[in-house]
Amino acid sequence: MLTNEEKRVICYSDAASPTLAHLVTPDTPLEDLNLNWSERDLPERERTKHVHRMHPYLGKFIPQLVEVFLRKYFSPGQTVLDPFVGSGTALVQANELAINSVGYDVSAFNILLCKGKTAHYGLPRLREELLDILARARASLPSDQLQLSPLAPRDPDLPELDHGGSEYLRKWYAPQALRELLTYRYHINRGGYQYQDLLRIVLSRAARSARLTPHFDLDFPKRPQTEEYYCYKHSRMCAPTTDAMKFLERYTVDTIRRIEEYAALRTNAQVSVHHEDSRNANFPPVDGVMTSPPYVGLIDYHEQHAYAYHLLGLTENRHWEIGAASNGSSRRAISDYQKGIAEVFRRAAAAMPKGAPLVVVAGDRHNLYDNIAEMAGVEVEAVLRRHVNRRTGRRATEFYESVFIWRKA
User: What residues does CATH 3.40.50.150 cover in the chain?
Assistant: First the structure.
């Protein structure tokens, strides 16, 4: 086992050997792994296959990268922990490989999304429910029977939106779009539906697209777009979105297809998801960690899905976020980030047998993870640097990220 001072840093060039994820075994040398996939090698449709694109999520790692390290360091029947579960990529891929998984996150929306991706569904019932609520919503819209508005009475099983939440919805949605979203929400708990969480995910995805935002700026729009604008995505003048039903219809069909695709691949491995702060969690016994922690000062994960919190009445715990963008990247923010991340890995290691692996994917531009490993009390086996150059669109950039291979001491 290498010490921190002797750790091995492997930098992959674009000419790395073409090892495919499904061919990786525990005996595959780290030097033989190909982690530098170009857009041609790994197009977006493969990076967002089946349930991985059930709902857009900024800052997730790609499933092929997860698969490589699950195959190398874990075996069917073992249990992997992701203490920063995010959109659930590690859990979805672990299940494909018959590996049990446990995930934790501070975001109520992330937990909703993870459960929606990994739940077992009766496919005929799922299809029936998704199409039924869509038909009910369509049928309700021409009449004034529901008298829905941002302040309309909501289902008693959902928390009431406060005035601030209602103001958010008025601000970010055209009247027709808001009425259509609220109509769909009205029916979620009134149709005897078994898969209500999945219906909420479809509603959230439609709400993301139906906001008064430029088509090219759906991640973190600063202000509502209420006038015609030049669209960099479509290279022409575009008008703001005024309706939501077209998105509800589109994502209903897409969600059914994605879940059916994943159903053909998934196994009976157990998946457990917990809405907790991993700094305080008592993790169950696990055989290792596969995760991608939040980056310091980069993303506010609750703000990323603000529309979902306001529309679904989810409880916000943004004060629990580690490394939130709102905290910046000052010396104090960096110190707090290191302490928080290290505490999570210290707790994770306590739930693992000696020598168990912790695989951590992070963009370490501040060079924080040597110290984090030392604070967490883990041994460094290797550090892999991969060139990320496959992103597309206006956010397309090239950068490096690190894969830290640690072991419980």
Answer: 8-117+267-408
Check residue 218 and give its pLDDT: 80
Across 120-148, average pLDDT = 84
Mean pLDDT, to the nearest integer, of 269-277?
97
Closest to 182 (Cα-Cα) out of 120, 244, 101, 92: 244
Handedness of CA 98, 103, 108, 109 (dihedral sign): negative
Domain 8-117+267-408 in this protein, CATH class: alpha beta
Give this prediction's pTM. Answer: 0.87
Q: Rounded mean pLDDT of 179-204? A: 93
Sorted by sequence, the CB contacts under 8 Å of residue 134 that are 6+ apart come out as 184, 248, 249, 252
Neighbours of 338 (CB within 10 A): 21
Residue 278 CA neighbour count, 13 Å, CB half? 31
Q: What is the 3-state secondary structure (H, E, C) of the chain?
A: CCCCCCCEEEECCCCCCCCCHHHCCCCCCHHHCCCCCCCCCCCHHHHCCHHHHCCCCCCCCCHHHHHHHHHHHCCCCCEEEECCCCCCHHHHHHHHCCCEEEEEECCHHHHHHHHHHHCCCCHHHHHHHHHHHHHHHHHHCCCCCCCCCCCCCCCCCCCCCCHHHHHHHHHHCCHHHHHHHHHHHHHHCCCCCCCHHHHHHHHHHHHHHHCCCCCCCCCCCCCCCCCCEEECCCCEEECCCCCCHHHHHHHHHHHHHHHHHHHCCCCCCCEEEEECCCCCCCCCCCCEEEECCCCCCCCCHHHHCHHHHHHHCCCCCHHHCCCCHHHCCCHHHHHHHHHHHHHHHHHHHHCCCCCCEEEEEECCCCCCHHHHHHHHCEEEEEEEEEEECCCCCCCCCCEEEEEEEEEEC
Q: Which neighbouring-strand residues pair with 295?
A: none
Average pLDDT over residues 199-216: 94
Residue among 185, 172, 187, 290 at smallest CA distance from 240: 172
What is the Cα–Cα distance from 403 to 381, expressed in whole angstroms?
11
Residue type, 300: D
- Ramachandran angles phi, psi of 235, nearest 5°: 55, 45
